[in-house]
């Protein structure tokens, strides 16, 4: 077992799991090697160097750390690629929620020790990999910008309020998409190419729409509303969980081509981490790219 820990994730919560995790795994006869990240990209390098000789790589951190670990796993040949286990301790943890990973550490450790896993698609954004979402526009930093007090008091409503505020403040982004052979050009306030039913604590898709190992993404395009009535329609569609109004379109596709047509390039986020100054991106789904330890639905091994 290679255990990769981001020591600053969750104000140190990521470290608290280590003693019990190593104890339980060692009792089951596992040899554990533990490393802590020292900065951006460190987790990827650790996995590239040490992962191929392991049966499993365990990540304790936030979605950004999980992204780096998965990037390292995808650099290992498929026949030598180890299983992936995720102990979420960041501020968002949408990926863990989509996989049905429990919140209690004891339950997660028990799950890891059993080692049952499900195959899971991985996204590739140009030459970079991501676990569950790439996006631009509104909502992309909502979880980080919403105060902890508001989260505690109001829950999902706090995320929604911050999300609509971010939509109103963003400049419309002119972009052209090619999805399933259809060309779509418009001014957008938000785009997500995802493999999750929860995005940033704001957008929640019907779980029946999302299968994390079906070889396709869910693509959400929100046209920039032209007036206050349009903003209210978008807000109502998101708050109601239906994601249905004339400003919102949802597609399913295995690859997407996007070109930014405005004067300035756009910053994307991959699993919450920024990719700056993007003009063009080709995004494709790597079907069954990784095997994730999970209690998720059928398909386990």
Description:
By secondary structure, the chain is of the alpha+beta class. It has 2 domains: 2-115, Rossmann fold; 133-287, Sandwich (Tumour Suppressor Smad4). Helix content is 29%, strand content 35%. The chain is built from 10 helices and 17 strands. It has helices at residues 13-16, 18-27, 42-50, 63-74, 94-99, 105-114, 142-145, 148-154, 156-169, 228-239, and strands spanning 2-5, 33-36, 56-61, 83-88, 117-125, 128-130, 133-137, 173-179, 182-194, 198-199, 203-204, 217-223, 248-253, 255-260, 266-270, 273-278, 280-293. Strands 5, 6, 7, 8, 9, 12, 13, 14, 15, 16 and 17 form an 11-stranded antiparallel beta sheet that branches. Strand 3, helix 4 (63-74) and strand 4 form a beta-alpha-beta unit. Helix 3 runs parallel beside helix 4 and helix 9 runs antiparallel to helix 10 (228-239). The longest helix has 14 residues, at 156-169. The radius of gyration is 19 Å and the shape is elongated. It starts with a strand and ends in an 8-residue tail after the last strand. Residues 142-160 have low confidence and may be disordered.
